[in-house]
Amino acid sequence: MKVCVVGAGPCGLTTVKQLLDEGHDVVCFDKNPDIGGIWLRYDGDGDQMKAYDDLYLTISMKLMAYSDYPFQGERRFYSRGEYFDYLNAYADRFGLGERIRFGSEVTTIQRVSDRWVVSVRRDGIDSKEPFDAVAVCSGPFKTPNRSIEGLENFTGEIVHSCEYRNNERFRGKRVLIVGLAESGADIVRQVGDVAASCTLSIRSYSYLLPRVSDRNRTTDHGTVRAHHHEMYRRATTYPLEFQTFWGRSTLAKVLFLAMSVVYGFATSVLGMFGVRRDAGAESALNPMGESIDPARLDVATLDNAENWKLIETWNRRSHPEGSWSPRRIFCKNVSFIPSIAAGRVTLNDAGIESSVGNTVTFRDSGKGEFDTVVLCTGFEHDFAIGDLDVKDGNVRNLYKHFLHPEFNGTAAFIGFVRPFSGGIPICAEMQARFFARVCSGRQQLPADLDAVIAREKEWEEHWTALSPRQTESIPSQVMYLDSLAREIGCLVPMRKMLFNPKLFIQLWFGSFNQSGYRIVGPHNLGRTALADLYSEPVENRRDMALRHALLQLTPSFVHQKHMMGTPTLNWVDSPLLGGTYSSSESPAPVLVSSRALG
Fold first, then answer.
1. SS3 of 63, please?
2. How many other CB atoms are found less than 10 A from the CB of residue 346?
3. Overall average pLDDT of the 103-117 stretch
4. Fewer CB atoms inside 10 A, N or C side of the chain?
């Protein structure tokens, strides 16, 4: 097929690669002068959504890499520049640049008979070109959400986070920051360092997860299949829609989980007598590139009782009714917490009521004078390009968030997915592998496509009920990818795992690694992928194996909740989050340590 790819960012690059693997004729259009999408910076990009100067990834490079070009070495967090270099290396490795037409903006896409006609503007000249299939990979950062109720009469400066590059323009100003996401957490910290005063306004609490745990490990080491299945399968009666190793077979499921208990106990027992891997001399730097002493949780965020107390109080408020399974989007960046603790940033969680001139009134009757408002309020759900649109602006109306159900598999929106914890690039890669095989005629769509979409949409809406506007979000990246991999044929077969304990233990109890999707199936890397999978540290899977084996033998109703709801009698809100501490009382345990969550 002749296939059009719109956008040459991380999602577009892997889409071009997967289509080429299937032998398609690919043309990629990108309005930028080079690859990289938001990661590409150049003079004159001030009005575009771009990664800001001091951005660091919120998940490690192990999970931000592609499975066909895995990151080598210990898990760590790349800077903006380092990740851009990785994308360039990926494009060079597979010769993707020759398929991309830079400086070419797609203005509309029309359905003409059974083909797609793509209109492109380059150097002021419009042209049209027909294609058999089209993949939109331009990302959700199209229309900034600037319509914030209560700010209609504010006469000061209003800046959207898409325009943010660094904190210099806010030095000495009175700044109000509205909303908090992962980039927002950095903006709060950086602006709070230089502003005359800084207030953070939120209406709800996202779930906070530090980037670093145990001094020198990334928290995403704790992303483990067994744990995700405990959260979204075992600890709830809500039916699971996504298929995994055992498919729909009850017998296969029982056999698999029984073996997980056997292998779990065996791994733990043998681990007690085994020799731990010699890691050599401990690095002087943590995964953020900062000194390992004193211990830190995040950028300039000490691992101390004060910061943990604020994080835990915040997380308690993120799930007011309590939950074993997270139901709200994660913010994998806690670097703003010390700013609140030190008083450089004031928190208001009541929301904005109104504004007049430079005065903003909050719903708790509080008021503030501000020179500048920074909106960390995300983007509109605006995906339409001519005849290509998404029903209700909700990508959950597409198959697996990407494949349009109305055009016989010839239209896809790739990369419009946001895992609670995990990387978008591998999600885009798996979507692209599926799409490329559909275009080849090697991949069949479900016969009851609309019914499958409806069921999976309902499942996701149930588990994201506390973040209803975030329709790109998926609760479990692991389950989502495994279900796609099962259909593609690149999920390791259950029989292969049952007769290979080492492989079973690594895939089920070990830290999640997308190289697991290149061991078998189309375009696999075989032993190379297996070696990368086994390169992960062994300590985590030993601990997880015992924990999972015990939980499998324990009634689900006794599972301790990650997020506790109603405060216990001796717990009082943190004064920095609007409450007070009693000197005679200490906070009760509020969650299983965030260090253990994936």
1. helix
2. 17
3. 97
4. N
Q: Give the position of tokens 């208001």.
A: 348
Q: Classify each residue of 274-284 as buried b or exposed e, where b means 16 or more C-beta atoms within 10 Å of its C-beta.
A: eeeeeeeeeee
Residue 299 contacts by C-beta under 8 Å, 6 or more apart in sequence?
56, 186, 189, 211, 288, 290, 335
Per-residue pLDDT at 231 exceeds 90: no
- For the chain, what is the mean pLDDT? 89
Q: Which residue has the higher pLDDT, 368 or 240?
A: 368
All structural domains of the chain, each given as residue ranges with its CATH number in brackets, are 2-143+380-488 (3.50.50.60), 157-212+295-378 (3.50.50.60), 221-275+493-558 (no CATH)
Residue 267 pLDDT greater than 90, yes or no? no
User: For 179, left (φ over 0), alpha (ψ -120 to 50), or beta?
Assistant: left
Q: State the average pLDDT over residues 362-388.
A: 95
Helix-strand-coil split of the chain, %, nearest 5? 35, 20, 45
**What's the chain's length in residues?**
598
**Which pairs with CB-CB distance under 8 Å and at least 24 residues apart come from 18-22?**
18/429, 18/432, 18/433, 18/435, 18/436, 19/135, 19/432, 19/435, 19/436, 19/439, 20/94, 20/96, 20/99, 21/433, 21/436, 21/522, 21/523, 22/436, 22/437, 22/439, 22/440, 22/442
Residue 575 in tokens: 């004064």
- H or E element that contains 340: helix 337-341
H runs (alpha helix) in 161-249: 182-194, 225-229
Report the amino acid identity of residue 429: E
Query: How many Cα atoms occupy the beta-carbon half-sphere of 197 within 13 Å?
Result: 9
Note the pLDDT of residue 564: 44
DSSP for 97-164, written as a single string: GGGEEET-EEEEEEEETTEEEEEEEETTEEEEEEESEEEE-S-S-SSB----TT-TTB-SEEEEGGG-
Token couple for 420:
């609670």
Contact of 35 with 97, CB cutoff 8 Å: yes
Greatest Cα pair distance, the chain, in angstroms, is 75
436 touches 32 (CB < 8 A): no
Q: CA 180 to CA 500: how far, in whole Å?
A: 45
Amino acid symbol at 20: L
Residue 15: in which H helix or E strand, if any? helix 10-21
Which pair of structure tokens corresponds to residue 121? Answer: 């503007």
Q: Name the pLDDT band for 542 (thresholds 50, 70, 90).
A: low
Q: What is the dihedral of CA 567, 568, 574, 578, to 10 degrees?
A: 40
Q: Which whole number is the average pLDDT over 151-158?
A: 97
CA trace torsion 76, 78, 83, 86 (10° rounding): -40
